[in-house]
Design a protein that fits this description.
Number of strands: 7
Structural class: mainly beta
Number of helices: 1
Order of helices and strands: HEEEEEEE
Distance between the termini: 51 Å
Shape: elongated
Helix content: 10-25%
Radius of gyration: 26 Å
């Protein structure tokens, strides 16, 4: 009984800790450099123009992990306007078949003669 309580507590702690990893949205306040690491001495990957929408990850000190236009890196926190709410996660569901259409479902193997013992059940 005791190991199952420990496992349950561990799963609850894991579920609660996942909320902080969600990316938040933000906007650049000025032209801002996207760097390879959290330091001004690291390589400058590109310069993001002012007013663009970015996704902000974890922040540590004056640096935040950000992604913009397919590029990821670090940016100075003072050059960002970060929203308080996490970025919405959009889930889509494929609508197949269209409503009202009937689609036959076939087994993953071909029918063989003699498969069914009687044809009139």
């Amino acid at each position: 009984m005791r190991p199952s309580i420990g496992i349950a507590i561990g799963l609850v702690a894991l579920a609660l800790s996942g909320g902080g990893a969600l990316a938040r949205t933000g906007t650049t306040v000025t032209d801002l450099g996207l760097r390879a690491g959290p330091s001004s001495n690291t390589e400058l990957l590109l310069t993001m123009p002012a007013g663009v929408k970015i996704y902000v990850g974890a922040c540590s000190g004056p640096w935040c992990k950000v992604s913009w236009s397919g590029h990821s890196g670090y940016a100075v926190k003072s050059g960002l306007a970060i929203s308080a709410a996490p970025a919405p996660r959009v889930s889509t569901r494929a609508v197949y078949p269209p409503p009202g259409e009937i689609v036959p479902i076939y087994p993953p193997y071909p029918y063989r003669s003699g498969y069914y013992p009687k044809a009139d059940w």
